[in-house]
Design brief:
Structural class: alpha/beta
Largest sheet: 31 strands, parallel
Number of helices: 26
Amino acid sequence: MSMDSVVSIGWDVLKWVVVPVKRQFGYVISSKSYAQDLQQEVGKLAYEAEMVHNAVEVARNNCRNVYSHVMEWQAKAEKALKEAGELLGEFEKASKRCCYGTLPDPNCRYQFSRKAKDKIELLQGLARECSEFRDISFIDPAPGNVTAASAPSAKDDGVFESRASIKRKIIAALADNRNSVVGVHGMGGTGKSTLLEEVERRIREERSFDLVAKADVSENPDIKRIQEEIAYGLGLSDIKQEENVSLRAKLLRERLEDEERTKQENDEGKKKKKKVLIILDNLWKGLDLKSVGIPCGHDNKVIGCKLLLTSRFQDVLRREMGCDRDFLLDALKEEEAKRLFERTVGDKVHHDPFKSLVDEALNKCAGLPFLIIAMANVFRDADFREWKDVLRQIEMSTNKGIDEKINEMLRLSYNRFKGEDGKEVTSLLRLCVVYGVSKPSLENLVRYGVGSRLFREDSSMEEVRDRLSSLIQTLKASSFLLADETDADVFKIHDLVRGFVASVASRDDPLLVLKNHDKSVTELPKDKLKSCTSVCFPYVDMEELPEELDCPEMRIFLLFTNNESLKVPVSCFNSMRKLMVLHLSRVRLTRSPSPFQFLENLHTLCLNDCSLEDVAMISELKRLCVLSFANSKIQRLPKEIGQLVELRLLDLNHCSKLEMIEPGVLGSLMKLEELYMENSFDRWNAVEQTPPTNAGLIELNKLKNLYTLHVSILDPSVLPEDLNVEKLTKYQIRIGDVPCQRIRNGSSILELTLDPISDILQKGCIQTLLGKTDDLFLGGLNGIEQTICVLSQKGFSKLKHLQVKNSSSVHYVLQSPSHTEFKMLESLLLDNLINLEKICNNHISSNSFNALKVVRVENCNKMEVLFPLSLLRELPQLEEMRVVECHLMREIVEVDDSGKVELRNLRALELRDLPNIKNFVTNGTAPSSSTSNDQVGPQIAFFNGQQVAFPSLETLRIWFVDSIDIIWDKQVVAESFRELKSLSIYGCDKLGLSKLKRVWDKELHSQVKFQCLHSVTVSRCDSLTSLFPASLARDLMQLEELKMNECGGIVELIEKEGLVPRDVFPKLTSLELNHLPELKCIYTGTHALRWPALKTLKMDGYNKVEIFASQPENEMPLHKQPLFLIEKGAFSNLQELKLDLCGRMELWHGHSHGGEFFCKVRVLELRHFSKESAISTCRLVRSLANLQELVVRNSDIEELSNIVEAKEGPRHELKVIPPFSRSFQHLKTLDVSFCDGLSKMFTPTIAGNLAELTKLRISKCKMLTEIICDDGGEEGLVVVFNQLKYMELDGLTGLRFFSSSKCTLMFPLLEDVIVSGCPSMKFFSEGPINTPKLERLQASTEAWLRLPE
């Protein structure tokens, strides 16, 4: 051995010995520094913890749910702060004990420093985690959320291939980033609204948007309703608390602008940007988006969302709404029309003699689906003679225009309504048209129907509702009303029907529905008003009402206005002596004289959202049957209201300022059948209080006809013992402090939050209600009641929905033996029952839970088992099972008998925060196990038994379940999981025990095929080394979405133990791989894989990947392999590519241009690329011919200067971004941030190439001094940003000006300029600037901008 070798070995040994000793010694001598650092981190985290605590309290005070990961963080932070404080305290004491603090104790300081170092890292990690919180809390998922709503499958209907083609074009146009507004136009009856429903279903199925909101605009837009419908889709429930239209618009605008800001901040990991689509149906003219709350710039170009519109008129879409793309929906083709007709009429169209008349019938319909269905409904039950008669009548209108043909066709259907029943049907249809909106309110129709004497006077309100529902079904069956697919209680009336009824069917009984272009009612012909019997002002913009309207025949007068300051003149209704129904919305009514003094025949009066100075004036209307003050600003219900003895319905819902009802008023309304007081008066007088100062509940006993009651009782002590509730058939009674966001299901609802000392459950009226309630909420059971079943003496024979919360005394829901059975129960929700041991403590009757569909158990920390097998066997209807934060739960099912249970209807299973659960089912014997080459000893599978089968399960979520080794092994029941569509596994290493080694066993595919699985999400499972065995991957033909996050052990996605097909996941559209530091490749096989459906690919945080993609024939560097091994056409549909290059990853390896493989990429986001990755990156970017959006983050762009072409200027000045310049010609969005090496963005030449750029955002680039640099070019140069509308410069501390060049800058469409955090910026440009449409210039105080006038 040479001396050099000896020296080398000796040096290595010395380093091995000395370096650790030096580190250990450093712990001793630096203990004081460690103490100071630890104290500093404690202070930082304590501040963050306090901020989170305050935010959580605010959220809970507003009835919002706090995210579980936030609560988990709070617990970890509290524990870490406590331990850190104890560590500092122990160190301080130890230091004082050793020679009175003058000499250090080496052992004490060594131990402290080591612990402090670990604790500092823990505190810093928690602080970083906290900084990533964007939202602390949530309400229920937005109905518009495509993952929250289960959309029915949207299949292209073979009957309507022309529609399917347009549908595909619309979806493609919405996916194109160049389009923000897409429209559909066509004449009435072509099926525009139906087409939009199909498009919405397809979007939900493909998840191309995260949120979808929809509103019907109609001929006279109701801005407030449109706002509510959009807010409903976005989950913006706070809008209901705001009545002012402008403030509602502000809430909506902020919500949508937040999505836009999120898109811009997405690089900082704060929150994932949600893609929002707003559908506006049935526009008759341009809609002012800003008044609704949809943020937009010039020409209605929207911000933070996309719009999909329909209108009859192309000009409305193009000129007034600024559509980027619009499509004509024309009539059906001949064969399509025939198939639709045949499908509606039935088989008789194929038989003689009917067959000969089909073509003739279809010729009359002009290919309009609306008319075809109307015709088919006429013919469906008609005989041959009737067919010929109908066609003969239509023939008479052959020479008329299409409108006349439509009316003639509708008349044929209309004339089929005969007799007394037919009269009721046509009267209701007329009432729907008078209403003036496309979606009439069923509740208002009931009230108008009663007031106009549409039904027999002796009919009760309940009988009216039943009859109305029956008539609506008749009108739906005849296609005069259209069903709403999302809500069975909602229906629509087509514009063609409204036009027909208004112009043809009401000639003998004239009605008038005003439109905005009518300007003023005073401009209408006086003879028309004089003969008119019904009039509606549906959200027509009116400045004032005339002093008096001469309408002596008027019976129905409806006024809905957006002008909240509109006053009603005293004499306005003086001539309307026959008026029976009056509805005024959002108007102001001053004190007497009353505008109602001559309305002796008025039966229905609705004053909704109104401001009333004198409620007593209503008492003059002695024949009033229906009175509504819903949402109105009234503070007192005076004694005069008690004179309305004919009143059958009183609506005081949402009169939040109502504090006093005079004693005796309610008791005087002897004929009252329905009383609504939701979110309204709750200051009931106590029974024993004399004299009474307010209304008392005991007054309701006088109302012998009362059967519907909605009421809140804040103080349970005011509830009379003998309150008569036996007569109630529909009610919503809230007693105590009930959670305001609770979802209600049913018509008889009782909600009780009890005081610990309250005896309210023993009162006779409560016992009566318990026995007849179908939806029951119980909270605060903290007395002696150990089981729910004993609470009702009469049992729970009608109960369908039971929720029990925050009740420490409850040990069981059902205790055997018991006379109580839950025969009708469909949902059972148990939350925070800290002493709940079991749902049932013994064997029960087979009838008890026979109808149960939903079980949710949360925060029940004494429960060890959810169901014994014997009870599970009695739940044949079970559809959803959710178990959350039950820390002692050891299994879901305990085997207490033999045999197998098949959960045939179970669709969803969620298990979350169950640290001690190991198996779904345990039978006391040795569980089945799976062995693995990388695992010592057997692995216990979670679904390990043969006792329970899941043939219909579609959604499986397993979060923070720390004690499982493997989810499936080969012992699974063969018929299970075949329908599984969505799988989510999250945080199964939360305790650091690294338990979950596998999701699937290699041999599982021989038992179970996961052929329906379309979504897989796996997060925070550090012990996984691969996700799919190759044998399983071959079966995942329907997989559409795959996400993996923070799985530190993942080396490969597909485990190589067999071949996988080239199109391994043929339907995968979205692939996200984030923070997988050990990932090296997707699959170690040697053949290329194709990803034919992939549209979105996002990858971040993978340190071991050195080459992103390459072809098999390319020679690889030694010890390197690409993440993707691909061939031409591999990414044929990829549109969005977001990559973290980790500073050194080569984006493309090989001689071919990457553009051949990424030809459809429109959005490219790159992070952390530097010198090592620059060449391949720039080569790829240049080749992307369809690139529209480029985002560059956290990158050292200074290094790019060495590959810039010489013509761009002197090399030493080029710390700029021109390597991408050839790709800029189609670029719409450019977003650059955290690129500290960048000093200049563009030369004037490159800036001039940005012909289609609409948005420019540059932020947090510390070295950037100017955007456009002076390259010494020709004088008089003009740089035009033709399409730029939005510019933001943020956190550019070195920026001195936008342009140092003397060239002229022109921004013909620029609307918004935002400059913040640019303290060095003194002026914008050395040369002239032209900004003709600049609307907003927002600059922080430290930025002094000099812009030309």
